[in-house]
């Protein structure tokens, strides 16, 4: 087993020692092309991202709103595959051996590749964790065992509707971090009720296990600052992709990185760093 599994845990330990909350940025791999994605990964880290979440392009991303759906469509128009995403991570690892990378996607491409082949390819590329949106925790035993064998963390989503028993089951199955979906809906949708989110996150933390990250309802530095005060991680995706869309080429990359810098500054101020 490689030491890769330690990257996510070490990231959270370091940030905890520094009194910071993790900033997890989401972009779709291959949107608008793989070269742009690679440059964007470096720029997001430079701007303050602690963990990079890479979306694997998929034709029916059921958990995602229009912004990320369109990002998937742009990537698929260039025939970006799961294998291409692995190659992207491997290229990133030639320059950055520290920043954790989590793949976020859907089960079909993994099933087609096969769990063992997928796990081996992801581990060899330098992936640290995998979030498979439509993998029911009740059916995930073989999946988790296969990924864990090569040191990959398995991140699961817990929703406002999960209930205490299922939330405990999901928390027990999650490694790396537990991802709380702060709204009843898709990414980039309605704004979350952060007072309710805080109460739920505090309950999830009490379950023990992995750190708790919050996403799906965070669209501004102000939102990120509120959530940073009570969560272990803040996840932002659609707002970053909107900035990437705002201008072609380097200008879009700069706009996305500028937003991440603003998120980082607001989060640090909220926790008194």
Across the major sheet, the strand order is 5-4-3-2-1-9-8-7-6
Any idea of the CATH topology?
A: TIM Barrel
Please state the average pLDDT score. Answer: 93
Number of structural domains: 1
Write the CATH homologous superfamily.
Answer: Aldolase class I
Q: What is the terminal-to-terminal distance?
A: 36 Å
Shape: globular
Percent range for β-strand residues: 5-15%
Given as residue ranges, the uncertain stretches (5+ residues, pLDDT < 50) are 1-5
Order of H and E elements: HEHEHHEHHEHEEHEHEHEHH
Q: Please report the first level of CATH classification, the CATH class.
A: Alpha Beta
What fraction, in percent, of the residue positions are helical?
40-55%
CATH architecture descriptor name: Alpha-Beta Barrel
* Biggest beta-sheet profile: 9 strands, parallel
Specify the structural class: alpha/beta
- Count of discrete alpha- or pi-helical segments spanning 4 or more residues: 12
- C-alpha Rg (nearest Å): 17 Å
Total number of β-strand segments? 9
């Amino acid at each position: 087993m490689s030491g890769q599994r330690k990257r996510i845990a070490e990231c959270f330990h370091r940030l905890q020692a520094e009194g910071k909350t993790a900033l997890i940025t989401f972009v779709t791999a291959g949107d608008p092309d793989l070269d742009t994605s690679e440059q964007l990964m470096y720029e997001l880290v430079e701007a303050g991202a602690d963990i990079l979440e890479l979306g694997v392009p998929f034709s029916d991303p059921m958990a995602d709103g229009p912004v990320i759906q369109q990002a998937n469509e742009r990537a698929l128009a260039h025939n970006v595959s799961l294998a291409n995403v692995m190659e992207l991570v491997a290229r990133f690892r030639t320059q950055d051996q520290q920043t954790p990378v989590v793949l976020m996607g859907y089960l079909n491409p993994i099933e087609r590749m096969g769990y063992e082949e997928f796990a081996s390819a992801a581990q060899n590329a330098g992936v640290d964790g995998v979030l498979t949106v439509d993998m029911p925790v009740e059916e995930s035993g073989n999946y988790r065992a296969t990924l864990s064998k090569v040191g990959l963390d398995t991140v699961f989503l817990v929703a406002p509707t999960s209930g205490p028993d299922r939330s405990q089951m999901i928390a027990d199955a999650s490694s790396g971090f537990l991802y709380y979906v702060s709204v009843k809906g898709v990414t980039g949708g309605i704004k979350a009720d952060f007072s309710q989110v805080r109460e739920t996150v505090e309950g999830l933390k009490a379950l023990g296990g992995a750190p708790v990250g919050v996403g799906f309802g965070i669209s501004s530095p102000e939102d990120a600052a509120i959530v940073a005060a009570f969560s272990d991680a803040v996840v932002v995706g659609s707002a970053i992709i909107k900035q990437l869309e705002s201008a072609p080429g380097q200008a879009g990359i700069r706009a996305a990185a500028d937003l991440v810098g603003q998120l980082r500054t607001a989060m640090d101020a909220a926790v008194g760093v």
